[in-house]
Amino acid sequence: MATASGTPRVPLPPPLRVAVVGAGEATGTEEALAFELGGRLAASGLIVVTGGLGGVMAAASRGAREAGGRTLGLLPGDDGRDANPWVEIAIPTGMGEGRNVLVVRAAEAVVAVGGDWGTLSEIALARKTGRPVCLLGPGFPWLDLPRAERPDGAAAWAVAAARGFRDGWRDEPPGIPAAAPGPRPP
């Protein structure tokens, strides 16, 4: 396809996608971390993918949308109206927790903010499918994964990891910046 002047039109690559996973019933601290992370990912031009419901998912989606970004929510039920109000594209899967595999496979990197068993399953599925995973905050201290204490470090990590994944690296692409040091959230 060409422009009016006859110059070939070169398609742009699709935006990178990062999944932000965490509890549907999150603490205020987890929601604050997820909100800032979503905003920073959106400001970097990434699409924020979540499970589409409340807690960390809603906070990350709200942060992304308020920063002018795009969001995708993969819902466990059959009704797209169940999505939080900051999900731009809601996809009802009807898969219950089985939708966790879709959340991580739709992304090129995953950042986990707190969470419980559902989040742990998303982390495991991401690692099983070769997606890089970073933990934001103090959750899951026994997991030997990259960890960021602040959203800026997690966002920088996610951008580099998603680019590396798209370029063909699996697990932990080389050159990913170390998680940003800083005080643990209260």
Q: What distinguishing features does this structure have?
A:
7 strands; Rossmann fold; 5 helices; 186 residues; 7-stranded parallel β-sheet; alpha/beta
**Proportion of residues in extended strands:** 15-25%
Order of the strands making up the biggest sheet: 4-3-2-1-5-6-7
Could you tell me the CATH topology label of the domain at 17-115 and 127-157: Rossmann fold
Radius of gyration: 16 Å
Assembly annotation: single chain
Number of helices: 5
Unreliable runs: 180-186
Secondary structure: number of strands: 7
Described by the principal axes of the CA atoms, the overall outline is: globular
Explain what the structure shows.
A 7-stranded parallel sheet has the order 4-3-2-1-5-6-7, with helices on both faces. Helix 1 (28-43) packs parallel to helix 2. The chain has helices spanning 28-43, 56-66, 99-105, 117-128, 151-166, and strands at residues 17-22, 47-50, 71-75, 89-92, 109-113, 133-136, 147-148. The protein has a domain at 17-115 and 127-157: Rossmann fold (3-Layer(aba) Sandwich). With 186 residues, the chain is of the alpha/beta class. The chain is globular, with a radius of gyration of 16 Å.
